[in-house]
Please model this.
Amino acid sequence: MTETQNSELPGVSRRTVTKAMAWAVPAVAVAVNAPTAAASCIPNVIIGQNACKCPGQSTGDPWGYYLTFTTDGTVCPDTTSEICVTNVEKANGSVFTPGPGVTFPICFTAGTETGQYLFNSTNSGNFLEITYTVDGGTPIVDDKIPTSDISDCTDGRCAA
Model:
């Protein structure tokens, strides 16, 4: 039997090809997993800093909320998703009526804050229930949005 020496033949060795394949497989796996990780980041909708409330009964003025919406930037700080608020209610089931000119959906880009929207109420319950979508996906309902952090309006708009 005759032995052939492959060391003199030009080209790439099987060992080099095997090493290259070993490094390529993890790179492909990482590339496949990246979109899944990005899609799993769902921004939380919160009441914006420019919102204010009309305290109602204790002042003789009507109850109401001038709400702004934004996202909590700590959950998905780099997202540019489109957020659409599709409904806002009082979590305790009491009346919460959109004011004049408020129509749903209220859409904005994650990380930005909307303008103010008036919602009329019959009490100052502690939580709101906000329904929203992210990039047109399945509706998300958050019924633990606190109203206690919303400052009283100080510009006279609450006067009866």
Observations:
- The radius of gyration is 28 Å.
- Residues 45-152 form a domain with the Immunoglobulin-like fold (CATH 2.60.40).
- Confidence is low (pLDDT under 50) at residues 27-38.
